[in-house]
Amino acid sequence: MAILAKTPPMGFNTWNTFGPDINEQMVLEMADVMAEKGYRDAGYKYVVIDDCWSLRERDENGNLVADPEKFPHGMKYVGDYIHGKGLKFGMYSCAGIRTCAGYPASFDHEYQDARSFASWGVDFLKYDFCYFPSFANCQHRYLTMAQALRASGRDILFSACNWGVQEPWNWMRSVGAHMYRSTGDIVDNFASTSHIMHSQMGNFNANASGCFNDMDMLTVGMAGQGFVGREDCNNYAEYETQFAFWCFTAAPLMMGADLRKVSEEYRTLLQHKELIRLNQDPECRPPYKVREDNGYTVFIRHLADGEFAIGVFNLHQDPRHAEITFAELGVPVNAGVKLALTDVITGETIAPKKDDLFVAVPGHSCKIYRARFVRDRKRY
Ligand code: GAL
Which of 57, 252, 262, 352 is 20 to 30 A from 176 via CA? Predict the structure, then answer.
């Protein structure tokens, strides 16, 4: 069996745009767009069908059944189609007795459902937490589904979604999940995005290869449309900040916008090569919060090949001027090295420096640099 989630999982999920209103044609079209419009080649692999795909009741043998009106050819057909596009197939169930929208869920049906998913060619299971019986043990039920998936005979990435209940960063990796939702549901405005960002800023230490901190699906490019779309939706800078934060912190990148309709500027943002390279850095180290100051936050993150990233996030509405001394990043002036910096978003380079960096960060924006050590001839 393969080792899954070596780097943060990337894909598309139906919930943000479509909510309960899903069907086969839309899912197949999304797979087409992912293959044809550069998403697959940028690294996005999983096409995930969220809640509301099944009939309201199991069949006489206790099996989950795809709603034949929404998915007339059944789920194996959908999986085959997605695989034919060089992509992977994701589905959804829940650890409780019903899904959040009231469909049958996998409590006490873990092994049976895992076998159904495997027989449909499923490669990814998002596993929610609604209607979870109060007498049951949450950690044990996530363990049981992790085991059921492993026993199914198929490599199925386990995306656990319990919204941060019982501090999943302390145990989801151990029970076998490949990603764990650490937050409640995102909606498409900056209040929601920044609330999620704040809630996780000091909480990334468990985020590493094999199991990643999932801050929910991206709303980048939704532009107010769709199920979690809002009138006060993010503007370009705010979407860029969301995408950059998810990339900087090595969060899973699950797109939620209708990819058939996303504008060119957001397609370009979602496929930003250097941001995705940062997200997928093979060393998979979590970020370290250096300082929170007057409304902005400074992080570093060690990267492969001796490089590191510097992130300055300004969640305030007003601009901030940040002075970052290299000493606070662990590189004092007498270190005998300078830092060569590249702006990850714009591609601009800054000549090697050794003491500090002044950055002007507009409201709701960020600056991200990739830093490389360069020997300083003048020693102390
Ligand atoms: C929520 C979950 C959402 C979505 C929804 C479906 O609990 O956090 O991401 O899956 O259920 O009903």
Answer: 57
Q: Is the pTM of this model over 0.90?
A: yes
Which CATH code is given to the segment(s) 10-279?
3.20.20.70
Q: Is 67 in the active site?
A: no
Please choose from 13, 51, 124, 216 the residue to mutate so as to test ligand 1's pocket, defined by most ligand atoms within 8 A of CB. 51
Helices (H), the chain: 15-18, 24-36, 39-42, 74-84, 110-119, 138-151, 172-175, 190-200, 236-248, 264-270, 273-279
Other C-beta atoms closer than 10 Å to the C-beta of 375 total: 9
Domain boundaries, the chain: 10-279, 288-379
Active-site residue (options: 128, 188, 258, 281)? 128
pLDDT tens per residue across span 23-50: 999 999 999 999 999 999 999 999 999 9
DSSP character at residue 168: G
State the catalytic residue, choosing from 185, 343, 356, 376.
185
pLDDT in tens, 268-280: 999 999 999 999 9
In this structure, the chain runs to a length of 380
Interatomic CA distance for residues 342 and 302, integer angstroms = 15
The pLDDT of 62-83, averaged and rounded, is: 98
Distance 181 CA to ligand 1 centre (A): 10
Inter-helix orientation angle 236-248/190-200, to 10°: 20
The closest alpha carbon to 258, from 307, 188, 189, belongs to 188
- Class at the top of the CATH hierarchy for domain 288-379: mainly beta
